[in-house]
UniProtKB/TrEMBL annotation:
GO terms for molecular function: 2 iron, 2 sulfur cluster binding; metal ion binding; oxidoreductase activity, acting on the aldehyde or oxo group of donors. Pathway: Alkaloid degradation; nicotine degradation. Keywords: 2Fe-2S, Iron, Iron-sulfur, Metal-binding, Oxidoreductase. One of its GO terms (cellular component) is periplasmic space. Pfam families: Fer2, Fer2_2. This is (2Fe-2S)-binding protein. Residues 7-83 form the 2Fe-2S ferredoxin-type domain.
Amino acid sequence: MESAHFTEITLEVDGTAHTVRVDNRVTLLDLLRERLGVTAPKKGCDHGQCGSCTVLLDGRRATSCLALAVAHDGAEIVTAAGLGNADALHPIAEAFLEHDGFQCGYCTPGQICSAVGMLDELKAGQPSFVTADLDGVPELSDAEIRERMSGNLCRCAAYPNIVAAIHDAHPHGAAR
């Protein structure tokens, strides 16, 4: 008999299907890290303010610390670890390495997922707060990158290098 406080859900995480019974109060971040051993998303603030836990949830970037796991039964989750591997890095990850877009590296998985998601948003023509022409496809300016990445904090202040990495990876950014 299913307890009122637990629910069985199925998720696909980085290409692997998982069926787990979870407490209805468990966040997606805690499920990923503590139950499934997926440690790419980091627990930074646990309030959705730093972006260290950013993943791609059904193709859109999301802060996993604010998402209840039970609300995403059947979802596809891609973490930074699922965007590539040691033999074939994702173009965003390659650009981060080339441009030294990290220092301590704690925020890097969230930054990479957010960069992939924001480039997909840009490609789809979704405007941001700084987009001048709301009817056209937004240009990838420094202001657009900074605005779209503003939910991802880097305590080491590697922002100029992150912006350069995203510019460099732009033609390839939406490809997975």
